[in-house]
Write a structure and sequence with these properties.
The structure holds three protein chains of three kinds.
Chain A (H helix, E strand, L loop, with lengths): L10 H6 L4 H7 L12 E12 L2 E12 L3 E5 L6 H8 L7 E6 L2 E2 L5 H7 L1 E3 L12 H10 L6 H5 L3 H21 L14 H14 L4 E5 L7 H16 L3 E5 L3 H7 L2 E6 L2 E6 L1 H6 L1 H7 L9
Parallel strand pairs in A: 3-8, 3-9, 6-7, 7-8
Antiparallel strand pairs in A: 1-2, 1-4, 4-5, 9-10
Chain B lengths: L10 H16 L9 H7 L2 H21 L12 H24 L7 H16 L10 H23 L4 H21 L31 H23 L2 H11 L1 H6 L4 H27 L9 H14 L4 H17 L1 H4 L2 H15 L15 H12 L20
Helix pairs in contact in B: 3-8, 4-8, 4-11, 4-12, 4-13, 5-6, 5-7, 5-11, 6-11, 8-11, 9-11, 12-13, 12-15
Chain C lengths: L1 H15 L7 H6 L1 H29 L6 H18 L11 H37 L3 H23 L14 E5 L2 E4 H23 L1 H11 L1 H6 L4 H26 L8 H16 L4 H22 L4 H16 L15
Antiparallel strand pairs in C: 1-2
Helix pairs in contact in C: 3-7, 3-10, 3-11, 3-12, 4-5, 4-10, 4-11, 5-6, 5-10, 7-8, 7-10, 8-10, 11-12, 11-13, 12-13
The chains are: A alpha/beta, B mainly alpha, C mainly alpha.
């Protein structure tokens, strides 16, 4: 908390975007709030993934800098989700490394990668359907909890303390993504847009250093996409680093600080949105894509 | 099952598919008592406790009351029937941890029950040449031994997909029975007579815990059930319970959300096994005789039927289901012969028509969730109970 | 002195613990005998294992009721041959008359088993698929169906095994390593292997087989590509049923008094173990796994000194395989098998 308040935070701008600073404080009481784009937080180094004879990812390298929103884009089948899955430990890379704060993630169990600080959402929503919205978020919070089976059985003090703060922080997170009024609904009964927001809240609950969003706007209408963009910016302003996989160019151009473009498993561009927009290689990669994708 | 997950082809299609799935799934399932769970949750805490105390008192009085019509048919002693029902109820509570919470299908649960029974028999029966200890000590010992077996069986198989566990446990259940037959120390069909019982004599110097008197055994088991239910409730409303339900709902997502899935699956398996062992030891004490004839796979399926009938994941339902599975053959002797047929068919029918079982109640997974939800209800002014469809309010709600 | 003590020590150990031996001599003496016998059982396991493997490949479901599909076939054999006046002793019939009767029994068994398989699919699994029920619901239903059928038979036929049926007297055919292979062993092994090769070729070459592989690999894409998934599923169950019916004939041939309500259950567990051992979803794996389970079970039985050990050994093999190589010897997945 020592460097908690950075002068760079534009409090008025935050308030304009509807950020409740008290809520932000509750959401992440123990994190260093720093929105300055800094050193490389995640380093993807020469990542290659082969499925049988097919090379899904071919020697891809890029960094995610602290405090930025990095977009990872590419046409269908370019290897975006594969890259994502390799980073979060779902796939084992054929070669190459993924480093988080300089430490390799290769070979770690998935839940350990999450505890190191890499959280994700799913392209096809994967909430725990029979749990309420709040319980879903608390599962995320549990990643930082220390209660043992014995502790829970005998309701030891650690358990009681964690349960109390979990409800508070869970509600705060739901408020943060704007669905607190539905906290007590089973997640499978939530409206679609709420489910997507709940996924983000659940991922944030694991207190990640990097939040990876896999096509969070899939199935959204333009108005909802606007709201989502505002939410992503708010998340970043709150001190999280964001990796965004997205299909919708407009959303990506509007919200990201930097964009990595993949095509056929290879990185073809890595620059700020303005440059990417005019990059002939990117344009040709997207040529032939349906009109509405290249908005 | 790959057919149950929406395809992830094109984002918009995926979204549409997901929507359709969710709408299909979103219809609140109704039990035979629709809305009971919601009404119960809406009651004040004190009223709930009052109801519970009344139910518990009635449960303790059952052997003395011997209510007409409910009582078992003349050939079956009502008090002993109650003792057996309570053992089945305890079994169902234990199996519910494995099947209902963690979603792991254990088809050899009878093996743990058998290990518990043999533990009690071999350490107390005069037929056993080994070390003898007081009966009550065999209860924790049976739990420890079965827990060990649970871990032993769970560690190699729980890393794999869930359905392998079903077949391995099925095999394990059969193996324990075969071993009881061929290992001389287990005494096969001859078995162990005069299994021990808790100490204590009545005014006439007779032991209180006789095999022919079901009442004390019933009271003992009922007390244990209450303790186990409280413990299960504590686990349910904690990190542990949430991890189990998350694993049941979507194991991969749970792992990615930071749940050490393997560790919690082993815990579920071990805890379930130990409760199975405990109930086996109680069974052995009550019946007073243990041999290899009582632990066939069919009994495992009865246990599973108990959990499924009560409502998978609902510990109170498990008590009800377990009692019913033991009670029905004793109450209706005419159909007792066909109990495996009846309960086998019941499994299929419940899964097809009423997947929630008799008491389809949801677990509450937060120790302090009630307060939060109530606060929320007061704040919003509405009282939409969990499980109802969302009203179409709020931004971006359900208008796609 | 010492040389005299050691054998006596060994012998005392043996008399104390006759329930379990480690009798290498006995195994060496009976090696070829138990090998051929094991292969015969293995061929039967393999045929049943195919039913598990195919359904698992297509639906990702352990069809516990497959053991009952098999036992229904056994009853088909039993009733047909009883009607044809077969009894405990071998019939005095001409060679071709016996063949004709057995073929008739085979046809009845195949029809009975296939019908049972279709009924199970339609009544129990299809409603669940429609409802998109969770995986656990399928498994619970599967075990429930298995028990419902088993105890329907129990209700109907009672607990004791049916009267023994001898189809023909096994006659020595030829001599291998001083051990006689009889006609029974030969018929079973040869017929089962032919059936399995036929199945393998069918899955690899026919249009329906291609459909099965497509659905096994990716049901959704297969549907998009115009494969009728429901039709493929029912076909898979029918193929499994046919093979189980054939296995039923051979099983009754090998064990004349084996027709009993619970007769399929343990055989089913072993057949599933065989499917996993070979690589579940893999047709050739089922053959290999079946033969291996048959062999290992038989060797274990001779080595450890009691026929009860067969099941224990088969189970231990299953657990070991799951620990060491869960994808099985030949690797899993029906979808990945090459055309």
């Amino acid at each position: 908390m020592s460097e908690a308040i950075e002068p760079e935070i534009d409090i008025d701008a935050l308030k304009e975007q509807g950020v409740d600073l008290d809520v932000a404080e509750k959401v992440a009481p123990e994190r260093e709030i720093s929105v300055e784009v800094g050193d490389a937080l995640v380093q993807v180094q020469n990542l290659t993934i082969k499925f049988g004879g097919l090379t899904a990812l071919d020697n891809v390298s890029f960094d995610i800098n602290r405090g930025e929103i990095l977009g990872l884009i590419g046409p269908n089948g370019a290897g975006k989700t594969t890259c994502f899955n390799a980073m979060t430990g779902v796939y084992k890379p054929t070669s190459g490394k993924v480093l988080l704060e300089g430490k390799p993630l290769n070979g770690l169990a998935q839940h350990k990668i999450t505890r190191r600080g890499l959280a994700r959402t799913f392209q096809n929503i994967r909430l725990f359907g029979e749990m309420t919205a709040l319980e879903n978020v608390v599962v995320g919070l549990d990643a930082r909890h220390k209660t043992s089976v014995g502790g829970a059985l005998f309701r030891l003090p650690t358990h009681t303390r964690e349960e109390k703060t979990a409800v508070e922080r869970g509600m705060a997170l739901l408020e943060f993504v704007g669905i607190a009024d539905h906290a007590h609904f089973l997640s499978r009964h939530l409206p679609y847009g709420y489910q997507r927001r709940l996924e983000i809240a659940r991922a944030l609950a694991t207190d990640p250093k990097v939040l990876c969003l896999d096509e969070p706007a899939a199935g959204f209408n333009p108005a909802e996409k606007e709201e989502l963009m505002a939410l992503i910016r708010t998340i970043r302003n709150d001190g999280y680093t964001v990796l965004l996989i997205e299909h919708d160019m407009k959303l990506v151009m509007g919200v990201t600080d930097r964009i990595v473009v993949l095509e056929f498993g290879k990185k073809i561009a890595d620059a700020v949105p303005k440059v990417i927009r005019d990059d002939p290689k990117v344009i040709s990669a997207y040529l032939g894509e349906p009109e509405d994708d290249v908005a | 099952m790959s057919t149950t997950e929406g395809p992830t082809l094109i984002p918009d299609d995926a979204a549409a598919q997901a929507m359709a799935d969710r709408e299909a799934k979103g219809k609140p399932r109704k039990g035979w008592f629709p809305g009971l769970g919601e009404k119960w949750n809406a009651l004040p805490r004190q009223t709930q406790w009052l109801f519970l105390i009344i139910v518990v008192v009635i449960a303790y009085l059952l052997p003395i009351l011997n209510p007409p019509f409910i009582t078992t048919e003349p050939g079956n002693n009502w008090q002993i029937a109650l003792a057996q029902m309570s053992v089945y109820a305890l079994v169902a509570v234990g199996l519910n941890v494995v099947v209902g919470y963690a979603g792991l299908l254990d088809l050899g649960y009878v093996a743990f029950f058998a290990v518990g029974s043999y533990t009690a028999a071999m350490f107390t029966s005069p037929d056993s040449p080994y070390l003898h200890i007081p009966y009550l000590w065999t209860l924790p010992l049976a739990m420890a031994i079965t827990m060990f077996f649970g871990v032993l069986l769970g560690v190699p198989t729980l890393r794999l997909r869930g359905d392998y566990l079903a077949i391995v446990t099925l095999g394990f259940g059969e193996i324990v029975r075969i071993l009881a037959t061929i290992i001389p120390a287990m005494k096969g069909q001859v078995g162990f007579q005069n299994v021990g019982h808790p100490p204590g004599t009545d005014a006439e110097g007779q032991p209180i815990f006789l095999n022919s008197n079901g009442t004390p055994w019933y009271w003992l088991t009922l007390t244990i059930i209450i303790v186990v239910l409280l413990a299960a409730g504590n686990l349910e409303r904690s990190r542990v319970g949430r991890a189990w339900i998350a694993i049941r709902e979507d194991e991969d997502a749970a792992e990615i959300m930071g749940v050490p899935t393997f560790k919690y699956k082993v815990w579920a398996f071990a805890i379930g096994a130990s409760v199975g062992g405990l109930s086996g030891a109680l069974f052995a004490g009550q019946v007073g005789f243990v041999n290899n004839q009582k632990f066939d796979i069919a009994t495992s399926i009865l246990f599973l039927a108990a959990v499924v009938m009560g409502g998978t994941g609902n510990k109170v339902g498990a008590v009800l289901g377990g009692s019913l599975v033991a009670y029905i053959p004793l109450r209706f002797t005419a159909i007792a012969e066909f109990k495996y047929l009846i309960f086998g068919a019941a499994l299929v029918l419940i899964m097809i028509f009423r997947p929630g079982g008799i008491l389809p109640a949801r677990q509450s997974l937060l120790a302090y969730g009630r307060t939060a939800y109530n606060k929320l209800r007061e704040a919003t002014g509405k009282k939409p109970a969990p499980g109802q469809l969302a009203p179409n309010t709020g931004k971006g709600a359900g208008d796609e | 002195m010492i040389t005299a003590v050691i054998p006596s020590l060994i012998s005392t150990v043996r008399t104390d613990d006759t329930w379990i031996t480690f009798d290498v001599n006995s195994l060496a003496e009976n090696f070829w005998n138990s090998t051929f016998d094991g292969l015969t059982f293995g061929a039967i396991y393999a045929l049943v294992a195919l039913g598990y493997t195919l359904v698992y490949g297509v639906l990702n479901l352990i069809n516990f009721a497959h053991s009952e599909v098999f036992i229904v076939g056994c009853y088909g054999v039993f009733f047909t041959l009883s009607a044809l006046n077969f009894g405990p002793s071998a019939p005095r019939l001409a060679f071709w008359a016996i063949v004709g009767n057995l073929v008739l029994a085979l046809v009845v068994a195949i029809v009975a088993s296939a019908l049972m398989a279709v009924i199970v699919e339609r009544v129990a699994y299809k409603p669940l698929r429609k409802r998109k029920a969770p995986r656990l619901a399928f498994l619970i239903t599967a075990i429930g169906v298995s028990f419902a059928i088993q105890y329907t038979i129990y209700w109907w036929r009672g607990p004791s095994p049916e009267a023994a049926l001898t189809m023909f007297r096994p006659t020595p055919i030829f001599d291998v390593f001083g051990t006689i292979i009889d006609s029974q062993q030969l018929v079973i092994i040869v017929a089962a292997v032919i059936l399995m090769i036929a199945t393998d070729q069918f899955i690899r070459r026919s249009r329906t087989g291609r459909g099965i592989r497509a659905v096994a690999q990716d049901p959704d894409t297969a549907t998009l590509m115009g494969v009728n998934k429901e039709k493929i599923i029912i076909t898979t169950f029918i193929i499994g049923g046919i093979l189980a019916g054939a296995a039923a004939l051979f099983y009754v041939m090998k064990i004349p008094s084996g027709v009993q309500y619970s007769g399929g259950f343990i055989l089913g567990v072993k057949a599933f173990a065989a499917a996993v051992l070979g690589g579940i979803g893999n047709v050739r794996g089922a053959l290999l796994g079946g033969l291996l389970i048959g062999l290992i079970g038989n060797y274990g039985q001779v080595l450890l000194g009691s026929s009860q050990w067969t099941d224990v050994v088969a189970f231990l093999v299953l657990v070991l395989v799951l620990i060491v190589r869960p994808e099985g010897i030949l690797g899993s997945s029906l979808g990945k098998s090459k055309a």
